[in-house]
Amino acid sequence: MQKVCFKCEKLLPLTEFYPHTRMADGHLNKCKECTRWDTMQNRRKRVDYYRQYDRYRSGLPHRVARRNETCMRQRTEEPEKHRARTMANNALRDGRIRPEPCYFCGSTTELEMHHPDYSQPLRVYWLCRLCHRKVDNMTKVGVASEGTT
Question: Between 5 and which of 31, 32, 85, 130 could a Cys-Cys bridge form, CB atoms 3.0 to 4.6 Å apart?
Fold first, then answer.
């Protein structure tokens, strides 16, 4: 079955519409792409409100508990990663390692440590948040980057 999005006016399959119990066919009248776009624009327009809202939400007891559970699960499932991260953070705190510009783009903001090999905890590459996400995504799909093998 197909449906027309009232916003972009494209004829799309029902799988491209979010479920909505109050609609006659059980799906929202705006496609997922248009809904995402509208949501993104709304968050950009009201950035201060949503920052405050997100801070409040992150402190809710069920979210704190879930975050703690995730942390504990990762700690038990991947102890080598936890050990490497802890050692690197301690070395940073103690001044044994210092932040450097992003290895790929040279940015000096939002720097994060990247461990290409968790068995060498103090061998880290400094990457900006964006480059770090790219490297992690390439690693997940099996593409090795220069300097991260």
Answer: 31
Does the global pTM surpass 0.85?
Answer: no
pLDDT digits (tens, 9 = 90+) for 130-148: 999 999 888 877 765 444 4
> What domain count does the chain have?
2
**Both tokens assigned to 17:** 């519409």
Residue 3, phi then psi, degrees to nearest 5: -150, 155
Q: Are 63 and 111 in a shared domain? A: yes
Round the CA-based radius of gyration of the chain to a whole number and report it.
22
- Strands 125-128 and 111-114 come out as antiparallel
H/E stretch holding 81 reads: helix 79-94
Phi first, then psi, for residue 132 (nearest 5°) are -65, -45
> Which residue segment(s) compose the domain that 31 sits in?
2-45
